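Troubleshooting: if your tokenizer reports a length mismatch, compare your output against this known-good record of 299 residues.
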Amino acid sequence: METVSIIIIIVFAIVFFVFSLIIVKQKQAKIIQRLGKFQSVRRAGISFRIPIIDQVAGVQNLQIQELRVPVETITQDKVTLKIEVAIQYLIKADMESIQNSFYELADSTAQIESFVFDAVRAEVPKMELDMVYENKDNIANTVMEGLNSLLSSYGFDIKKTLVVDILPDSKVVDAMNAINEQKRLRQAAEEKGEADKILIIKAAEAEKESKKLQGEGVALQQMAVLKGREKAIKDLTVGTNMQIKDATELVMKLIDQDTLISMGEKNQNVIFMTSDLGMKGKVMEAMVGADVVTNHQKN
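Known-good structure output:
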């Protein structure tokens, strides 16, 4: 009989010990209530409680959590949008924060969502569609500041708020793509026009430089001709004691004859106007001489 009693006591002690154990995982906290009243917060590790009297009321996750909230709203230019906001938050690790986060908010997730709805729908209708894309960081910061202000006293710490997606109506997306396509085509046309303009300018500059070089060449050629005539006149005046006027006339006549002979060789018709009959006869003789030379070369 005594043996049975001992066994019963041992079993009872084991059961009491097992039910009095509380094991808490890392980054968790368990809320302990004694007869329905908050008693303590148990952190990671092993601890004890009084079975039946002390109960685990709930478990709080102390890791950084993410809540994604899809919000449907409308912009200032009457475009319907679906905006997805990601809220990254955690419960502060001190006992008061853990207690408040568990007892003060009946449904923290729903209350966070409600605030996000309100904040986004207050900001987005002030902006046109393009401004929403440009100011998505400002929208996220506004939501984060508001959430921190609202939830900080309940033990929540909002780490980051992100606008992860902005989805206009499909027709609006198609219109935006068409606008971007036309913009790129216009830019391409402008770039091509600018390239063609550069080519035309470069060609004009090259032609200008070419004509400049041709002009310089002609000028040098004429200078060489003038120097040759000057030397011929000087040689005639020095070598034959001819007067400068007579020497000049002779050189000019020889030049005219050479010109006429050259034109005759090329079969070009020339009308030479002069009031000097004697010169006219000499010109005619030069032309006849040019024909003879040309015919001789052909034979």
